[in-house]
Design a protein that fits this description.
The protein has 502 residues and is α/β, with parallel strands linked by helices. The protein has helices spanning 53-69, 84-88, 92-103, 112-124, 164-171, 179-193, 196-199, 213-224, 234-247, 260-263, 266-280, 292-300, 305-321, 326-344, 353-368, 380-390, 398-410, 425-440, 472-475, 477-491; strands spanning 6-12, 16-25, 28-38, 78-82, 107-109, 133-139, 144-150, 153-160, 207-211, 231-233, 284-287, 453-455, 463-467, 496-500.
Length: 502
């Protein structure tokens, strides 16, 4: 990453949307601008877990303002992610379609563990380099992330569906504070977080760090009241809860350091924080400067190959976990990417962001196409797709994992199961190359590709042609038979595959 390059990270949190902009200075990121808007989208989920029209509109308006500021940025300079609210929202696709357009950049909805990884990365890069064992806690609007790690490396990551907005709506619905409501909220939070007791035992970490809004809001109030700066203690939490109960309700709450936008959700935040302290034996928590958006910047910084390597490691980890034949997966991947290279009419350009991503995703799908084979021999593609749609894979967004699941689901069998996805030209090209590669590698050995060319005779037309050399079909009759069956499958779709010499 060259000096002067601009970078930007967009964090669509359940409480606030944030935009961080800066420049690269001798390999380090230097912030030049920071925008934050309290959108509170996490409070806009209805009983059916759909975002309300008002919540969607508020989000679009904020992202349009961010988009104006990001005008002129290149695709590789911006990374935008959404967290728990959009993980839950059933109508997230409707929101994202317009959100992507007004922001001007794609927004990835990330899994809870991927969010945890990014949070730890952002926190760790803003702390001194030591061998200290760290517990990092991020209490957000609708989820709480707990991470253990040493130095820059996280070791245990989990996300729990408990957050300040959700808990405030449920246990302090009218803005009222009482000893009973705090007790109920803390008990409920403890029930959700209870399984963390063993994984995050006090014997496994040296220092607890709090990231993001909740710890900052609590810390600001404690600091204004004379408590030590940059730290939240059990005594401080006890004092703050007593003050909230004494205020009776949000309308009467007058406390130095308490921002107006935090009043409505402070009850939920305090009750969750108290539950975390009690469960994990925390007596004091340091306020960490870094967070999710800083983790995004680290990925963008081109610790560059680190991000790509992380996803490659996730693919290898999944392959190992499900006992995939990696040699065959790599063989299929080599053939599939070779065919795609022919279709696109040029060599693989790893430095072109879109070009490189297209090839990498096809290769990852090829490596994982048999991931469901230990569950079922005949329907392994269906089980493989389910596994990928529900797996937490570091470095991947939910949409990226879904893309891999579609390729794995469609790599064999009838194509009508992917009917709605066949309108995406790039997906179809990947899918066709994968299907043909699986056929050519059916004997589980490297196929003879001499003289074989896959091409798109008329650019932008939905037809492809596979040309084979004279005598190939006679030399490989089973492969030729399978290819003829494949041609018939594509005739039932808006696309066509023509065979010459097979």
């Amino acid at each position: 990453m060259q000096n002067g390059n601009r970078l930007a990270a967009v964090d669509l949190g359940s409480n606030s949307f944030r935009l961080e902009i800066g420049r690269v200075d001798h390999g380090e990121f230097r912030r030049t601008e920071y925008l934050k808007e309290t959108v509170r989208q996490g409070g806009g989920l209805d009983e059916d877990r759909n975002l309300t029209p008002a919540a969607m509109q508020a989000g679009w308006e904020c992202l349009a303002r961010f988009g104006e500021r990001l005008a002129g940025f290149k695709p590789g300079e911006v990374k935008a992610v959404a967290t728990q609210t959009l993980r839950e929202a059933r109508n997230r696709d409707a929101f994202l379609e317009r959100a992507n357009a007004v922001l001007g950049f794609p927004i990835d909805v990330i899994s809870g563990r991927e969010e945890a990884r990014l949070i730890y990365q952002g926190v760790a890069h803003m702390l001194p380099t030591t061998e200290e064992r760290r517990l990092v806690i991020d209490i957000g609007g609708r989820s709480t992330e707990l991470i253990l790690g040493t130095g820059l490396a996280p070791s245990v990551m989990e996300s729990y569906r408990v957050g300040s907005i959700a808990w405030s709506k449920r246990y302090f619905p009218d803005g009222g504070f009482s000893k009973k409501s705090f007790e109920m909220a803390e008990i409920a939070a403890t029930a959700v977080l209870d399984e963390a007791i063993d994984a995050y035992s006090p014997t496994l970490w040296d220092t607890a760090y709090g990231s993001a809004g909740t710890v900052g809001a609590i810390g600001d109030v404690l600091l204004a009241a004379g408590w030590p700066a940059g730290v939240v203690t059990q005594d401080g939490l006890d004092w703050l809860q007593e003050r909230l109960i004494a205020a009776v309700n949000v309308e009467r709450l007058r406390m130095p350091g308490m921002r107006e936008d935090r009043k409505a959700i402070i009850g939920g935040g305090v009750s969750i924080m108290r539950a975390v302290f009690s469960l994990l034996g925390i007596t004091e928590m340091q306020h960490a400067a870094g967070g999710l958006r800083h983790g995004l910047i680290c990925d963008l910084l081109g610790t560059a190959n680190t991000y790509g390597d992380l996803r490659t490691k996730s693919v290898l980890r999944l392959a190992s976990k499900f006992n995939v034949d990696t040699t065959h997966g790599e063989r299929v991947g080599t053939v599939a990417t070779h065919l795609l290279q022919q279709v696109l009419g040029g060599p693989l350009d790893e430095h072109h962001p879109e070009h490189g991503r297209t090839f990498r995703k096809l290769n990852w799908a090829a490596q994982l196409h048999e991931i469901g084979s230990h569950i079922s021999h005949s329907d392994y593609h269906k089980h493989g797709a389910y596994i990928l749609d529900n797996a937490d894979a570091a470095g991947f967004s939910l949409s990226e994992m879904h893309r891999l699941s579609l390729l794995v689901l469609g790599h064999r069998g009838k194509l009508r199961k992917l009917e709605t996805s066949l309108e995406q030209d790039d997906l179809v090209l990947q899918l066709l190359c994968l299907r043909v590669a699986v056929i050519l590698c059916h004997a589980r050995r490297a196929p003879d590709l001499q003289g074989m060319v896959l091409e798109r005779p008329i650019p932008n037309q939905r037809s492809l042609r596979l040309r084979c050399r004279s005598g190939w079909a006679a030399a490989f009759p089973q492969s030729a038979h399978l290819l003829r069956e494949e041609m018939q499958q594509w005739q039932k779709t808006p696309w066509s595959l023509e065979l010459l010499g097979a």
